[in-house]
User: Fold this.
Amino acid sequence: MTLVESQNDRFVQEAERLLQACRESHGTTTAHPSGPAAAPERKRLDKAYKRLREAVDGFLPHFHQVRERAARLADHYPGLTTEEYRRAAVSLAILGEWHAGDAAPAPRAADEAIDHPAGVAAAVLASIARDGFLRLAFFVCPPTDYRRLGTAEPERYLLTHLNGSVLSRQVRRLRDLFRGLEAADIPTRVWAVVADTDEDDYLWRFLPQPRPLDEDALTERRRLLLAGAHRYLTEQRAAPKDGRPQPRVLPENMLHVTNLSAASWSPLSAAVHQRVLREPDRYFDAEDWRAEIETMRRLWRPGSYYEALPEPDETVMREILRHKFAAYAQQGVLLAEQQPWLVLIQTERPPELRTKMLNIGWAEQTDGSLPAVNFFGPGE
Assistant:
């Protein structure tokens, strides 16, 4: 038995012993009241017993579940340390509980991932074993106001703050995930990727061109947005319960923010981009096209993301999507080249299709599937 296993077993034994002692004390006090003067003491003991019982009864199943999962990981992926298996098992439990990708209960979803050689478990173990921390990444949809394209400073269509943005509506769930990992003492690094190239990748190619944009001014706006995203995610705010400062989403030491406009694209990423442009139907079926056209049409509804832009007809929309599919495949190569052991936090909809779009490029580099946990469920 290792030191970690020995310490864990002693902790569980002590928790069970303490709970049993509390049960016996509670039973004795309840069975032998000593008059009205003892009522406040009995009430305090009842309350303490209830809290301890809930804490221990809630903890023990999770502890045994993690230990069993760690043993299964050791069987599937031998050669690592007990602590690495434990951290991976805890990470999988947290990710599995947070994942909204299917209706399966979290323990089952996490256990099934162990049997998938190119899945989440392999990525989590590789990252923890190689780097000592869990690698996560998610894309940030940049805030825009396309009405500004008709002004004297059209570059200001790209906003530099995240208030009221798509990300602002995802804060609570993302914060829950990162705080869960932090509370479990899982070292974690998170890459937030600002996807600030959509216009150049597929919109401006087919929609009526806006007035000429000053590239230097637009580059500066992108730089300010990068800083704004970092500030928004890590900004200290008073906790509702006790007023103590806490980051809005995650602490600075967990976060690295980057943007697609500053990426260096490799020959492989360029080749993948061209292949998808030439043969999109080789990678995407009729249902994929239908789902993505439906998603894009919603973005032109009143009050939605592209409301201020002219809505394309069916032919132009398919051309936009052809380039969008190719751009995502290229981004998948970038992820695999820069962060080969990451788990993607898929915050876009529809989640399965978005991950499929990225996976075309990811698979070219890794010969596997992009590991992902989903923010949204299939029907959301």
Summary: The longest helix spans residues 39-76. The longest strand covers residues 134-140. Residues 1-8, 103-110 have pLDDT under 50 and may be disordered.
